[in-house]
Amino acid sequence: MYVPQASWRPPRITTALALIADLLPRKPDGKRHPQLARTAMYETLPKNSGPVACAECRRGKLKCNRVFPCHMCIKRGYEHMCPEGVSEPRLSATGRALRRTVSDLNAEAELLQKRVVQLQAAFRETCRRKAALDTNFTTQRRGDIWHLTDAANGLSYGDDMAFGERAGWRYTGLAASDSTAQGMNASCSTASSCASSSAAVTDEALWSLPDGIIELSNSFPIARGKTAPCMMRYLATYLPSREEAEWYTAAYYDTALSVYNPIPEAVLKCDIVARIYGQGLPAPNPCHLSVVFTVCAVTALQQEDDPHREHRSRFYQTLGKAAFCLSQGVSPTTIDAILLQTQLSLSIFDTEAWNERGMLLGVCRQLITASGMHKDLRDFPQHEIEERRRVFWQFCFVEWTYCLQNGTFPSFVDTAIEVPFPPDPQPFILPSGEAEPSLEACIYRHAYTCVGPVARFCTSSRPPDHEELLRLSHSIEAFALPSHLRVLCGAPSGLYSSASPPQVRFSADPRQALKQFIALKGSLYLMLMLHRRAFMQAVDRAQNGQADVDVVNHKYAASATAVFNSAVMLATGMRSLHAAHPEVLRRYWRLCSSLLFTSIVVLTRIAIEQPQSVLARDALKWLDGMVPFYQSRAAECNTGTYDSMASVIIQKGLQRAKHCATQRLHDFEAAQRMSATRGMSTIVL
User: What's the mean pLDDT when you consider all of the chain?
Assistant: First the structure.
């Protein structure tokens, strides 16, 4: 069977006739048919026996007269190369610039190759002398290691930093000063040691990072050239001493910026800090370094007695971003490092920080999908399987909450989630000996049952279904909290009026009280976000034809009641928390103030839009206590311009609400007098 090739063309008619002539019977003298013979002979002749165009005209697609040198080559000045020669192509300005760039890059590559050879020689020479080097590189440092790290630094960044002005410069962390070194011993308090070291570090030392580390930090989270063990050892020289690292780790869970810590305390202490500061280990994992640096940054920002806390936090945050690396694969610690970075941009009123947090969560989503953490893969050790599950559910909670606040569609909510919940690391033990789920375990289940569906409902492009809204609201109310996280005394019934306020009681332990408040505000915040659209349809006068509406009898009365109760419950819970533990509310006021501000705005909107309703009268009574409470707490915490502006806004809102209520009362009395006057006129007539 004949198989045509790529260059095959259909045979010409004359060729076909010649082939047929070969198949026909010949004459007795052995000759073929005359007509077919002439056709075959004609086929063998060349089609055009004249000269072809010159090479330059063929290249330029010009019309050549085929008399060499041709008229086109003579016209263009190429008669000396016609007909076989070809001129060089003329480059445009862009082409010439690219040629110069390529030439410069080739020259730079040759210089860098020579530099690599020199640094490799220095590295081999240093390796022969580092046998006596102490393996604990964070406490005792010798001069030999600095030649090695400077060489590695120059090798990674491609510059002459090791031989420049910073060749002899060293940074030894917070243990550099003599006062700190004398204060650090086994018997002294770690907190006092850290406080004494804070005053010894100057602004110049805090900002004296090499330019290469700054460049690596700016390339976070996608950075290159940081997989060398020497580079990790160079970054590890900026670690605090082990005592200070343990103090930062312990203080992180007491004074963190977020009410939710994305990494368990046992994992941070045993799996990360212990490995970095262990003896006889190779260069530390880059993500482990990033986690420790970021924990130090988060904790340092909360040390109010440290005059350099903002500088120190930015210093460790820069190191945490510089140490982060993806070239060694994606592990649970990789996701932990990115989620920790999201804690440093918590203010929803800072647009740049909010966008950065969204970008980091997007990177996490891609890494989780690429590594298969969204599937329950069993080809790992049991410990790693549990860590992968923990990291996946932590990401889901953080990302779904962000999407609910930002209005973006969440991940992993359109498909069935295969990943089971991780085991509870620290279950709560009751006095009776019975174990209950901890706050972390409740957060995972609450995220799956309530946060994810609510985020999907609120960010969906489909028209809202009120029946589905009520079903989600019922699931939030029906979510069962363990007894050690409950603060509401008795079951809620009807509206929370000022005559019968909700009874809230927090634990005597500050840490336990904080966990109770986290559980309380989580469900109440979901109720506010879920019912906000239907609430506005029930309250807003513009959506009700500028008419007075009885909110309690509206078709969306359930949403209006739910929002009213949630706002009252949030304010009551914060006032009860302040009465029991004022230091807890003061420390977390930056996060709680937005919730209280939202509650005040909700009640103010009810009082202004529908002043004749039953909810408006109760809202005014609640506002009389909530607005002064907000203003006093904002003045006490002194958190900045935002609280000052918010205090002015809610004060003006309260004044307007009272004015609307007074005006409504005057209108009602005038209508009553007019009705009475008309009645008397009818009687007289």
Answer: 74
